[in-house]
Amino acid sequence: MKLGLDLENCYGINKLVKELDFTRIDGIYSVCSLYAPNGTLKTSLAKALKDIEEGRQSKDIIFPERATKRLVTLDGQPVNAGQIMVINSYDESYSSKQVSTLLVNEALKRDYDEALKEVDDKRALLIKDMAKSSRKQNKAIPELICEAFDRPEKEFLDLLADLKLQSTHDYSSLADFKYGDLFNPKVLDLASTDSFDQELTDYVETYEKLISESAVLSRSFNHQKAGNVSKNLSDTGFFDASHSVNLSINGQKKEITSKDRLNEILQEEQNKIFKNPELKEKFSKVDKKLTTKETQAFRDFISNHQELLPEYKDVKSFKKKLITGYLQSHQSAWDGLVSTYKSNQQKVKYIIDQAKQQETIWKGVVDIFNKRFSVPFKLRVDNQDDVILNDAAPSIEFDFDDGRGVQQKVKHETLLDTLSQGEKRALYILNVLFEIEAKKNAGAPVFIVIDDIADSFDYKNKYAIVEYLRDISQVTHFYLLILTHNFDFHRIVGGRIIGSRNRVARQRRMLATKTASEIKINPEKYQNDVFVAWKRDMHQNEHYMLASIPFVRNLAEYCGHDAHYLTLTSLLHLKANSQNITVQQLQDIYRAILVDKSSLILPDGASRVIDKIFQKADELSNAAHESPELESKVIVAIAIRLKAEQFMISQINDQTFVDGIESNQTRELFDKYVEKNLGETEKVRLLDQVNLMTPENIHLNSFMYEPILDMSALQLYNLYISIQNL
Q1: Which of 208, 228, 337, 679 is deepest in the core (most CB within 10 A)?
Q2: How far is Cα 250 from Cα 306, in angstroms, rounded to an integer?
Q3: Which strand (E) or helix (H) includes residue 349?
Q4: Is residue 250 left, alpha or beta, with left meaning phi > 0 and alpha meaning psi from -120 to 50?
Q5: pLDDT of 671-708, one tens digit each?
Q6: Sheet of 377-381: strands edge to edge?
Q7: In sequence order, which residues have a C-beta less than 8 Å from that of residue 636 and are 6 or more positions away?
Q8: 189: Cβ–Cβ under 8 A, 6 or more apart, which residues?
Q9: Domain 2-96+419-523 belongs to what topology?
Q10: Rounded to an integer, what distance in angstroms lies between the CA atom of residue 611 and that of residue 12?
């Protein structure tokens, strides 16, 4: 796969045209590493590519009026959002959306769905019937039922099964009433007031007194239950089979041979009660409470169904009766659902137990993280079974361990307040791992841009990231572009993941340089240790010869070559003999220190080394090319320091003081210059930059060169010219 970049005026990228080859060939992974000094390219390129992922237009923030061009292609075709993933350096608020995906075991989910399909079908049928009776929406029925019986909605099926086992009265006659008619919220609010409660109490007491005096009815055999008896006898064809019933009226048995006659007698008894003057008076007091617009409909309703009014003395119990009545009116659907649920319950229980114990992909990611990264927390999901089986959102908690042998459960927000910056970044990395693993499982080709993901990490965690990048680089549908301004990280990625064994690999270790008109991306010049290249070619490259001075000086110091160390120090600090050291002397020192260069011949042996340093610095600063080449920056840094010391020594004009300096010469000279108040503020500021921008010691390890490598060459050139002008 080849990535084509054609960008103009994108977040500070003036112009960039480049094709990067990610083709997997000869055992080389689809990985490119791009080192870009600060302010060159890295963040701007990541932003432009992130815009593609998130479907935004790119722009130049500082100069929005400039026309922006953003043409990014994969194998010649415009890249789309699904083909690209940009991992930013750090985003504290970032949380992976893939945790649920990684927690699901598809096979287990499929078994669970199959086990519940028949149950779900019967559940839907009962809910539909209940909705029709109650005039409530289908989706409201489970909550309505569970609320009435104080059970959580997730126990809906268990509740229906439990209700089947309970010995209940027949409330099916209530199924003719709409739920909303019976339980108007405004009426329920009114019923809870003391004044309404008193009127209702008086009514109920009068009603119960009258019904107890009835010749046919009683408190236990009221008009509702009497109506149920009539209905059941009629529905079963009791009277059609020429059967009859005996009613005890005032102690006398009276035979009833038809449904109509039975209903007539029951209605007469009901009318005697509800038309009783005393009860009518009590009802009128209740009726007067129902005068608002919100309660008017209920007033009309209850006027026609006074037999229901006593139920409002216990609204909670009334709701249970009504729900039970709805269920009883759809007995067949209720029976079918409970029966099917029970028959599948053991299978479902087994699957749920399996889900709780599942070793999912999510756990694999967490294990990778826990084993590789050094952080004081472990994370877990408390509701894994619900996530796998019921599409619930994962409830993630963290176990924090401060090293004292006790773990404490904490939430995400608390954890962030506790962690160090590096540990917060590690938590961010964990979320990134979730996203990457999800894309790994998806199997579709994806171009992953990694923007300084190891920034601010300690070495242990930095190497953990490198090892993980190496792992995912082996995924055949992944293509990795690693962006960094950390040269050491770039070097590690190059050595451990890309390699340099052939031309293809070397082309994928790249450096970015910026000019006033464009940004260029070229292969890294130093594919291995920079000193290997310098040492190998210093006889034919004067830049390498001069840049090796600090390196060999350190070797001389460490190996006890005191005389050589002092001579080379005189090429980094202005000493009495600095002007007289020749290339021939430098050759002799290199031969003595670098034992594998015993036959080294450096050209132009009679010339003075300091002249060559200034000559190369002049050439580089006059050309003013932004270059990532380390040797160029080292030479200019040396020249800056020598020129600055030359100026300060001349101004201080105290050779005894200068000769007495034993270490940190540039700083000692600067402090004396300031102490003697020898220059105006601008000159002091300029000389202070020398201390900031040119390291006083350049060490053996190429990692220690990173500050000067990260520094813009143009900044060094400008400083050199300014110091020259002093």
Answers
A1: 337
A2: 25
A3: helix 331-357
A4: left
A5: 999 999 888 888 988 988 887 776 554 555 555 566 66
A6: 377-381, 396-401, 407-410
A7: 617, 620, 621, 713, 716, 717, 720
A8: none
A9: Rossmann fold (3.40.50)
A10: 39
CA distances from 628 to 625, 632, 710 (A): 10, 8, 8
CB 129 within 8 A of CB 492: no
**What are 401's two structure tokens?**
């361990």
CA pair distance 623, 714, nearest whole angstrom: 10
* Residue type at position 208: E
Mention every residue, 6+ apart, whose C-beta is less than 8 A from residue 328: 170, 171, 172, 175, 334
Please provide the distance, in angstroms rounded to a whole number, between the alpha carbons at the two ends of the chain: 54
Phi first, then psi: give them for residue 209, nearest 5 degrees: -65, -45
Least confidently predicted of 219-223, 243-247, 407-411, 537-541:
219-223
- The pLDDT, as a whole number, for residue 299 is 63
State the amino acid at position 252 in one-letter form. Q
Helix then strand then coil, in percent of the chain rounded to 5, is 60, 10, 30
- Sequence-ordered list of residues with C-beta below 8 angstroms from that of 426, at least 6 positions apart, any chain: 369, 373, 374, 375, 457, 461
What's the pLDDT tens digit per position in 15-71? 999 999 999 887 788 999 998 877 778 889 999 999 999 899 999 988 889 999 999
Domain residue ranges of the chain, discontinuous segments joined by +: 2-96+419-523, 108-173+336-352, 179-304, 530-725
- Amino acid found at 399: D
The size of the chain, in residues, is 726
Q: What digits encode the pLDDT tens for the residues 382-395? A: 666 665 556 555 66
The single-letter code of the amino acid at 657 is: F
